[in-house]
Amino acid sequence: MNVLDKKAIQHMIAARTAKELTGPCTVNLGIGIPTLVAEYIHDDKVFLHTENGLLGVTDVEEEDIDPNLVNAGKLPVGEAIGASYFNSANSFAMIRGGHIDVAILGVLQVDQTGVIANWAVPGKNIMGVGGAMDLLVGAKKVILAMTHTNKDGSSKILKECTYPITSTRSVDMIITELAVFKVVDQSLRLIELMPGVTIEEVRAKTEADFIAD
């Protein structure tokens, strides 16, 4: 996969994920593909939240970047009209208090019950858990926006996670470049194929068991 293909795939996943957001709702976007979802939200009743203390996150043009205004992933962001600032403690109180309607997360692995691993790879130094554990517990709905496979072609949707799990809570939906799954009663249900994708391809690239609606 070349860089252009990778970028196109990431944006395709982000665009499909944005279709799941209908206002009024407060949404937290995780690091990676989830940050791209902001580009495809056209509902002014969808309010973006970042755990470092801003509600009303928007995209920002390069010439308008303020180096002091970033999201939890240290990426520059803009502020919508009516945006509000607060400290990190209040931000996490919003999450833990059930005030985030949707969390969109990236992932290293997800198992066939919807349990995810997205914060640690044994033997490697990566960014760490951030707000993912809190979002999994506190958000009303959790959507994964992720590539279906690793760089080597191995499945990221597994029978069981091999990395340390983030939370025992199952996510609600998984969106990849190949398919859309819902997690129902801790089982994966394939509800949609991406354009040009066959169910045989999904089965070949998915280690986990799933039911095809």
Characterization of the model:
- There is one protein chain.
- Helices cover 20% and strands 27% of the residues.
- It has 213 residues and is an alpha/beta fold.
- It has one domain (3-212): Glutaconate Coenzyme A-transferase, CATH 3.40.1080.
- Helix 3 (88-96) packs parallel to helix 4.
- It is globular, with a radius of gyration of 17 Å.
- The mean pLDDT is 94.
Q: What is the CATH superfamily?
A: Glutaconate Coenzyme A-transferase
Provide the β-strand percentage band: 25-35%
End-to-end Cα distance, whole Å, is: 30 Å
Indicate how many domains the architecture comprises: 1
What oligomeric state is this? Answer: single chain
CATH class categorisation: Alpha Beta
* Helix vs. strand class: alpha/beta
Q: Quickly give the CATH architecture.
A: 3-Layer(aba) Sandwich
CATH topology: Glutaconate Coenzyme A-transferase
Order of helices and strands: HEHEEEHEEEHEEEEEHE
Largest sheet: 10 strands, mixed
The parts where pLDDT drops under 50 for at least 5 residues are none
Q: What is the approximate shape? A: globular
> Whole-number average pLDDT?
94
- Spatially, the strands of the biggest sheet line up as 4-3-2-1-5-8-10-11-12-13
**Fraction of residues in H or I helices:** 10-25%
Tally of individual helices: 5
Number of strands: 13
| Cα gyration radius (Å) | 17 Å
